[in-house]
Amino acid sequence: REMPDGDIETLLVLGATTGQNGLLQAQSFKEAADLTGVVLTKLEFEVLALLLSKPGQVFSREKILNTVWPSDTIVLARTVDVNITRIRKKIGRYGEFLRTKFGYGYMFIK
Question: How is residue 2 annotated by DSSP?
Answer without folding.
Answer: P
